[in-house]
Amino acid sequence: MLAKRIIPCLDVKDGQTVKGTNFVNLRHAGDPVELGRAYSEQGADELVFLDITASHEGRKTFTDMVSRVAATVNIPFTVGGGIGELRDVDRLLNAGADKVSINSAALRRPELIDEITRHFGSQVCVVAIDAKMGYAANEADVAQWICYLNGGRIPTDRSLFDWAHEAQERGAGEILFTSMNHDGVKNGFANDALRRLSDTLSIPVIASGGAGSREHFRDTFLQGHSDAALAASVFHFGEIKIPELKKYLQAEGITVRI
């Protein structure tokens, strides 16, 4: 069995790590390069850095940060935010990133997935999906997972499962699913939706949104069939230590890299 991965996520705004609840109410969590170094030393399997503002100036700041991260950590890391064309991918890979995460730009122009995988390979392309359980405009009486654009601000007419399958068909190497309902509230991951994704896709699924305890990580691996679990605030604010989490998961019969 492939080892399950633990992935700290660092949302970066103006060069600093921030974290909110349900995508709002941001608070500072520290320097992203130093946090990345610490997580690498503590045994994280990968890192994700997201430029959550991605203005023109923000992109320059973020690219400089990516270069510093690459010089500091010895584990793979993914970067995302403001990626809309191949030159953005090229810029970030040249700065040292291992993978890129695309979200809103892919929903607006799905061909971007094909272009990235054709030029750089599927292993580079992570399709991130922010979705919320709600009601689609064309099916007012049926609750379903709806995909959102622009950091969870704008609902679309795409469902989580249809979009994830299309992303896979276009060549995405992984799906990073964040449940907006669960984000930052620490009540556990959206394991029913994650299990449906994991059981019907052939590419890895990363769980995001809802980690609040060691048991939540266990449950998303055992119940949600997730390949990896991503979290932010529980790591940033010292509520869960990665070495202790991995020892706990190993004791629960889950294969992890110690």
Describe the structure.
The chain has 258 residues and is an alpha/beta fold. It has one domain (5-251): Alpha-Beta Barrel (TIM Barrel). The model has no long low-confidence stretch (mean pLDDT 91). Helix 1 (32-42) runs parallel beside helix 2. The two termini are 15 Å apart. The protein contains ten helices and twelve strands. The longest helix is centred in the first third of the chain and has 15 residues, at 56-70.
Secondary-structure blueprint:
Layout: E1 5-13, E2 16-21, E3 24-30, H1 32-42, E4 47-51, H2 56-70, E5 77-80, H3 86-95, E6 99-102, H4 104-108, H5 111-120, E7 125-135, E8 143-149, E9 154-159, H6 160-169, E10 174-179, H7 191-200, E11 205-208, H8 214-222, E12 228-231, H9 233-236, H10 242-251
Parallel strand pairs: 1-4, 1-12, 4-5, 5-6, 6-7, 7-10, 10-11, 11-12
Antiparallel strand pairs: 1-2, 2-3, 7-8, 8-9
Helix pairs in contact: 1-2
